[in-house]
Write a structure and sequence with these properties.
Elements (H helix, E strand, L loop, with lengths): L5 E9 L10 E10 L2 E7 L10 E4 L4 E4 L1 E3 L11 H8 L4 H6 L4 H10 L2 H16 L3 E7 L6 H18 L2 E9 L10 H18 L5 E5 L7 H13 L4 E5 L7 H7 L4 E4 L5 H10 L2 E4 L1 H6 L8 H6 L4 E3 L13 H10 L5 H7 L2 H6 L16 E4 L16 E6 L2 E3 L4
Parallel strand pairs: 1-4, 1-5, 6-7, 7-8, 8-9, 9-10, 10-11, 11-12, 12-13
Antiparallel strand pairs: 1-2, 2-3, 5-14, 14-15, 15-16
The structure holds 3-[(4S)-2,5-dioxoimidazolidin-4-yl]propanoic acid (DI6) and fe (iii) ion (FE).
Length: about 400
Amino acid sequence: MRRWTDVWLNAGIATMAWTGRPYGAIEEGAIAVADGVIVWIGPRNELPNIDGAQVHDAGGGWITPGLIDCHTHLVFAGDRCDEFERRLRGESYEEIARSGGGIRSTVAATRAASEAELYAASLKRLSTLAGTGVTTIEIKSGYGLDLKSEIKMLRVARRLSADLGVTIRTTFLGAHALPPEYEGRRNEYVELVAGPMLERVATEELADAVDVFAETIAFTPGETAQVFEAAHRVGLPVKLHADQLSDQGGAALAARYGALSADHLEHANEAGVMAMADSGTVATLLPAASYFLREAQLPPVDLLRRHGVPIAIATDCNPGSSPALSMPLMLNMACTIFRLTPEEALAGVTRNAALALGLSDRGTLEVGKFADLAIWDVRRPAELAYWMGNLPLCGVVKAGVARETAA
Ligand code: DI6
Ligand code: FE
């Protein structure tokens, strides 16, 4: 038998695995780890001899899988607090976007920032988010919108993973908005994204997936398909910002290309949801964006449940529609605004978030998976979705190694 290096004891364990029990829970559990991977998990009173292993006392709370934020735009320069104030005075998100603000104003700031400045600003946000129990995060490009600046963003995202004990998956989102210099020349920009930009990103292995913002203020279904075809040619899976502000048939489009996830989905229709169920596409819901934009239309949670589409929950961390940096707050919002159960919400930031990133080595606590753990000072798992602005986190373990936490 492989030597166990570490054992965690004295906690309930929400494994989030399919065991038939709520949360896949083990009331008084133990987890043994070797080489960063879980080698034994079960009730403490069945734990074999642990001689030689370092024993960690989890303090009588609950252990969950390390949280996974599967949709962020965390690398950007500047902020859009001024637009927040404009919206409070009555302007809409779309009006601000059409008047040259919105994504374009972050593009100007991000292009102007040096790689070092962009890294420093992003590192601060990442360490805040990581300090809320996050061990894996996806980061999209999409505020560069020219070859040089998109590459700069993706390089910063890749480099960020080094110090903080967080796995970073990167997504190329060149088709986030039409850059101002391409006004009136949409085709040329889409060809640039689907051609030279994507080729460079693929050659330098800077992205793990490709995303498009399909929306009236962004890209059409036809343009989206063009980028998706190109992504498949270079062997990258796709994701889609789908049906956020209007029904663009985005859910069905994502499904047609076997997308890992379709995200937002407030205005998705039932045919699209059914297509997602068939293609195994995850629905990533972003409650903080709904909240921050005061979007009245809620995503079709009942349809997603009825058709068995896995639901993930993410921050959508970005300066325009979701300046969110706390995963436990997302759990609360997913329940309060979208009416998910606390168990569904927790599955959304663990098991289903891993699916949305195409990762089968994490997201649940089972033998063979990475020992990415979050340790919480709570009496039962539903409490994780209950508190607002309180962070009952007492430890994070990344691949078997205890990580410094802000908590
Ligand atoms: N949908 C969003 O919610 C973000 N991007 C997107 O495609 C918003 C990005 C921004 O406003 O800066
Ligand atoms: Fe987004």
